[in-house]
Amino acid sequence: MLEGFSNASRIPELRKRLLFSLGMLAVYRVGVAIPTPGIDGKALSEFFESVSNTVLGMVNLFSGGALEQFSIFALGIMPYISASIILQLMTVVIPHLERLSKEGEAGRRKITQYTRYGTVVLSVIQGLFISIGLEKLQSPGGAPVVFDPGWGFRVMTIITLTSGTAFLMWLGEQITERGIGNGISLIIFAGIVAALPSALITTAQFVREGQLEILPLLFLGVVMVAVIAAIIFIERGQRRIPVNYAKRQVGRRMYGGQSSHLPLKVNTAGVIPPIFASSLLVFPTTITQFVDHPWAQAASDFLAPGTWAYTLLFVGLIIFFCYFYTAVTFNTSDVAENMKKFGGFIPGIRPGQRTADYIDRVLSRITLGGAVYVAAVCVLPTILIGYFNVPFFFGGTALLIVVGVALDTVAQMETHLITRSYEGFMRKGRVRGRKG
């Protein structure tokens, strides 16, 4: 592994990409420390100490602590993710968007532009409701969170938060284009990892005060290690479908006749389903947290983390997005058609539509297992918080995102190393998925 990183530093292009990604993430962390004007930071921090295990605690986790400090990046990247979900769902039902999705790079750029517009609209809506709610908040000691409430504060907050989200959206796109890894995922990854030191300090404080015993803490550590191992094992898991290529004669030479395989990942959607599901649940519940109305409070209590309604809805959304995102990113008809063009066939399966149906059937079965695995990992925080008095909102969803993003980033670095004839991160060769 260390030799692999040493090789990575010898490639100028890869070194520049790594430094660029780290620089952009450093800019993001600096922005998290810049507060929005008009907020009493001490009163807001005291308020968040009392809601660490609520939905606001989860939003604060994904924003890397920006919401707790109410910085210019307080909304995080969640509005962009919500807009992406809406656009992808609308692509299925709106013919114009469906045509754009099939027009190649030009169509994708147009959909990306619509996503940016949607991000700004959602940021304005969230910023308005949050600014109104902040004016009514007080710390446990009775100190108001907002110094000078009114429309001046609301407009300033909306502009600040919307600009911060737009900047994060641009930052993520720049990392994806000019750096290493998926920029949006890396921003969420950086926010979660940045919360680890404070979470460890809080845990140590709970142990000293006797609020958290040693044995439950050790059991919690064992569970976390086991979950990380399971995530790595399943994320690398594949179902390999054998593919044979018929021999064909070109002039006096005979080509083909080789055997290969079509790898289908157990979790094709990766970390996208929990991110999408969390974003959809966070958007309405974040607004209701700051609205002082009986129906808003009832909705907030109904969808609070730890309730059966929240858990069932969260699991259902994860399973739905596992299938939905797999269907969007993996077109079985195109795969079958490409195999047919190059003379490939699955033994015992007729080329063409029969092959597409067979691949779709196999993919649907392994996606069910992958969706159940993702859902099981992501509901782990609810169990830990409910039974072990965990003092921070960090568990399955965060672990899945951190490990998944780390594996994807290392895989991209591995590809750069292999293409330039350097050894990868593993002594026995490239990071490969195991056989299903």
Describe the structure.
The protein is mostly helical and 436 residues long. It has a single domain (2-235, 269-329, 379-419), classed as SecY subunit domain (Preprotein translocase SecY subunit, Orthogonal Bundle), CATH 1.10.3370.10. The protein contains 19 helices and five strands. The protein has helices at 2-8, 12-32, 41-49, 55-62, 66-69, 78-93, 95-101, 105-134, 151-178, 183-194, 196-209, 214-235, 272-289, 294-302, 308-329, 332-341, 353-378, 380-388, 396-419, and strands at 238-245, 248-250, 253-255, 259-265, 344-345. The strands form two sheets. Strands 4-1-5 form a three-stranded antiparallel sheet. Strands 2-3 form a two-stranded antiparallel ribbon. A hairpin with a 2-residue loop joins β2 and β3.
What labels describe this entry?
three-stranded antiparallel sheet; mainly alpha; Preprotein translocase SecY subunit; single chain; two-stranded antiparallel ribbon; 436 residues; globular; disordered C terminus
Concise synopsis of the structure shown:
This protein is mainly alpha-helical and 436 residues long.
